[in-house]
Design a protein that fits this description.
Helix content is about 20%, strand content about 40%. The chain is α+β, with helices and mostly antiparallel strands. It has a domain of about 90 residues: Immunoglobulin-like (Sandwich), CATH 2.60.40.420. The strands form 2 sheets. Strands 3-9-8-5-6 form a 5-stranded mixed beta sheet, with no helix packed on it. The chain has a 4-stranded mixed beta sheet with strand order 2-1-4-7, with no helix packed on it. The protein is globular, with a radius of gyration of 23 Å.
Length: about 130
Amino acid sequence: MLRRIATRRIGLSGAALIVGTLVFAGCGSDSGATPYVAPTGPAIKTLSISAKNFAFTPSALSAPAGILQIDLTSSAGNHDLVIQGLPGFQLEVSGDTKASGKVLLKKGKYTFYCDIAGHRSSGMEGTLTVT
């Protein structure tokens, strides 16, 4: 009888281990998305944006189509900047820090925003018009 209980416990523990492994394997970071690759070459324009609680300054920008450099600075809090329609691009700042990155944008209207929970809904977004 003790042998049967021990076997049953080992069987249940093994099953739990297998289920746990499969669940965590499904939670991997490989979502199939291609990581962002910055364009090479010089930027035709640099856009300077300041992030603070809960706004970007300026929140409306314009630039010509092509390679653009975005310089993001923070004067307060933790923030990031992502551009809707440009998967993988993200600049992150915290406190009095600066982050820069290049993007290749075609003509159009782009929304940029802070992806930290609650920031965008508090008004932390802007528009970049590319001509």
